[in-house]
Amino acid sequence: MGTDDFVPVIDLSARNTERGRAALAEEIGRSCESSGFFTIVGHGVPRSLVDRMYTTTNAFFTLPDAEKELIANRPGVSGFRRSGGTTARGSGQETPPDLCEAFGVHVTGELSDAERAKLGDYWAPWQLANLWPGEPADFRATWWEYLDAMTRLSADLLRLFALALELDEDFFADKFDRHVSSLVANYYYPQLEPPLPGQLRRGAHTDWGSLTVLYQQDDLGGLQVLRKTGEWCDVPAIPGSFVVNIGDLMAFWTGGRWVSTLHRVVNPERGNTSSRISIPFFYQPNHDASIEPLRTGRVTAGEWIANKMRRTFE
Length: 314
Prior knowledge:
Blueprint: E1 9-11, H1 18-34, E2 37-41, H2 47-61, H3 65-69, E3 77-78, E4 80-81, E5 101-106, H4 113-117, E6 129-130, H5 139-164, E7 182-188, E8 202-205, E9 211-216, E10 223-226, E11 232-234, E12 242-246, H6 248-253, E13 263-265, E14 276-283, E15 290-291, E16 299-300, H7 301-313
Parallel strand pairs: 1-2, 3-6
Antiparallel strand pairs: 2-12, 4-5, 5-7, 7-14, 8-13, 9-12, 9-14, 10-11, 10-13, 15-16
């Protein structure tokens, strides 16, 4: 099933003019009200950087298991995570473990232990130190360059979000000036054995925070978004594009005007033993940002996201 207008393709190349930004904001607003998902092209992120990010990330995941385990997640650090968790648990579903490996870092992961300890009086992933692989040699530098590009793109998307919500264009700026964002790579390894009943590469879930910008490997599908009718809608991997979606916190922030939608990554057809990589950037507000919905209520951004994550990983 195609995406048609449920996950539209939006060309950002007109965002440098006032008229263009107004038109884009309107288009983005419609998408966030209907599905919470859209695909962007004309975003300005160099294809050469995206290609280097894919190449170095794939080189890491195809290292021998023993080398990857050297930087495995452990108390106090964020690094490599072998298959075993389930994203569906965060949505109240009990499913077999996701068929996926992951590596993730946080923008705060380079701070000192003392500085990270100030980022909330509760457990949160942005309090962890980043643990980097020694190989490939350009891995760390490439990831930081890509993370910086995603941060700049996401900040501009939020300015368009503000216009779409009929707010001042810089409405979100002071809520993200100390953001606690994360960059994650998912490696969907070759499926050499049949999956268990109900087992997927990534179980059905919503994102917890404000905004996600996703690279998915060209020519290899798998991402699906749930329609209100209960049907799953394919989101194709368009060369040179990113998929953007809002999370639960942004839906709350808009007072329910915008929606955070269930999505999943399905398995390839039996006999297809190809691997696949996707790289989501989760743009998260300052951990202590006070989030007041456009209607009623208030939460603290960090505690909202941390509670969502705790339900998934506990």
